[in-house]
Amino acid sequence: MGRITEDLIRRNSEHNDCVIFSLEELSLHQQEIERLEHIDKWCRDLKILYLQNNLIGKIENVSKLKKLEYLNLALNNIEKIENLEGCEGLTKLDLTVNFIGELSSVKTLQHNIHLKELFLMGNPCADFDGYRQFVVATLQQLKWLDGKEIERSERIQAWQNFPVIEQQVREQEAAYCLKRAQDKEEAQRKLREEEENEAKERSRSGSEGQSPFSVGNDDHVLAPEGQEGVYNQKKFKDNVDDLEFWNKPSLFTPESRLETLRHMEKQRKDQEKLSGKKKKVKPPRILITEDGKALNVNEPKLDFSLKEDEKHNQIILDLAVYRYMDTSLIDVDVQPTYVRVMVKGKPFQLVLPAEVKPDSSSAKRSQTTGHLVICMPKVDGIITGWRQTSESRTSPSDSSRERTNQRSKQIEKLEVDPGKHSFPDVAHIVREKTPTPRRVQSEPKVTPCGEDPDFEDNPEVPPLI
Q1: Are the beta carbons of 86 and 44 closer than 8 angstroms?
Q2: Tens digit of each residue's pLDDT (9 = 90 or more) over 13-34
Q3: Which one of 151, 203, 214, 393 has the largest count of C-beta atoms within 10 Å of its C-beta?
Q4: In 3D, which of 288, 285, 367, 276 has the Cα closest to residue 321?
């Protein structure tokens, strides 16, 4: 049998990033729920609630849902309309195919002034004479009943005939309640008989198991063919019992629905025992190997960025966590060489390029994006990367890099021989130079080449320097 738990609600609220306090729509149909509980405390902003096809026997713990507009409780075991006065915003209520026999309980819906649609088809009260007229006259705010619009003439006629119809409904209610009490006694008697029969079968099987001639003590003697025959015989017997159960006529009561569910649950457990199948448990994710090496894991499949802040000597991890996810679902663990973040139970682990200080680290969430920002200060002087390198061996690239660094550190100076090169004396350069014109200076005479007979020396042409 199912119960409403926080884990169940979170699994069915993925459309809201698994946040339950701000949930507006929740679907818990076909969960074999027997009781309404916890919803009014955890999900107070609900507007739509689907609870059809369960085993709920009473409407309760929903009075604090002030914003609830649509409640679906079809195909349950409800026998009376109650505890809905606090749902001030309720506009639609679906109670199709339940066991409501007290038609007068619809009067409790008079406080729900915004109620426009009501479904009661498939209930015992829907077979009462004057059922529709009684509901129309009692709930004046209704616009639709069982999917059919209520006309003004129908409402006036129901008001006129209400005293007579009310008397008929009360008489039919009394007859139904008497019959319902007899059905309950009969169901309890059958349940006691079934429990006694099961106890006898268990004691009989236990005594047979202690007998020296029992099959259980001679399993080592039986051949595989014999064991298979015993298995087939038991399976055939179970199939016969199952066929007999489904062909047996039964009343349509809440007890018969519970009996059917118990039979199906028992059949499932017996099938698991016979087949020997067990649920496969998913092995846990390996985060650290046997030799102590941490692994990079991103099971939640989140985007992230890892950068080093040289100014503040720290490493910053930016993890793109879901924006509207509750912070209580996040767990951060910073270690000297790696960081681990559990997001909704799924691990995110990243090996760090340098050793950090876990005690001085901090984790914050952005109010705009919802990202998780983890700041991890580095440990001064200790660098541990994820690639292990040998101290004795150095690669050629490392050696060439060291040589270039040494050359850059040395200051190279040029040597000059003063005998070969001399600098001009700027202080006496003016005194050495004569103030005579340039043409008067001694210039090298150009002697004409005697080999050239056509050469003429023209004194007006300036010499070539």
Answers
A1: no
A2: 888 888 888 899 999 988 889 8
A3: 214
A4: 367
DSSP letter (8 states) at residue 386: S
Sequence-distant (6+) residues with CB within 8 A of 355 are 336, 337, 378, 379, 382, 383, 384
pLDDT in tens, 277-302: 555 667 778 888 888 889 999 999 99
- Structure pTM? 0.53
If we measure between CA atoms, which residue out of 60, 103, 102, 52 comes closest to residue 85?
A: 60
CA distances from 78 to 83, 140, 272, 365 (A): 12, 24, 32, 46
Q: Cβ(43)–Cβ(20) under 8 Å?
A: yes
Structure-derived torsion over alpha carbons of residues 239, 245, 246, 251, reported in degrees to the nearest 10: -170
119: exposed, middle or buried (Cβ count in 10 Å: 0-12, 13-18, 19+): buried
CA 258 to chain centroid, in Å, comes to: 32
284: tokens are: 């846990």
Residues whose CB is less than 8 angstroms from the CB of residue 126 and which lie 6 or more positions away in sequence, other chains included: 120, 146
Query: Could you give the residue ranges of the DSSP H alpha helices within 146-161?
Result: 152-160
Tell me if residue 144 falls in helix, strand or coil: strand
Q: For 308, phi and psi rounded to 5 degrees?
A: -105, 130
For residues 146-184, b (16+ Cβ closer than 10 Å) or e, as one string? eeeebeeebeeebeeebeebbebbeebbeebeeebeebe
Say if CB 293 and CB 335 are below 8 A apart. Answer: no
pLDDT of res. 273: 73
Smallest CA-to-CA distance from 303 within 355, 360, 353, 343 is with 343
- 3-state SS, residue 268: helix
Give CA–CA dist 95/74, Å, rounded. 5
Are the beta carbons of 300 and 343 closer than 8 angstroms?
Answer: yes
Q: Which residue has the tokens 């059922």?
A: 131
Give the pairing of strands 346-351 and 297-298: antiparallel
* Number of Cβ within a 10 Å radius of residue 76: 26
d(CA 431, CA 428): 5
Joined tokens for residue 198? 């099961």
Task: Render the burial of 310-331: b for 16+ CB within 10 Å, e for the rest.
Answer: eeeebbebbbebbeebeeebbe
CA–CA separation, 352 and 376 (whole Å): 10
Rg (CA), the chain: 47
Looking at residue 6, what DSSP letter applies? H
The token pair at 152 is: 């003004």
Q: Round to whole Å and give the CA distance between 14 and 112.
A: 31
Decide: 26 and 9 in contact? Cβ < 8 Å: yes
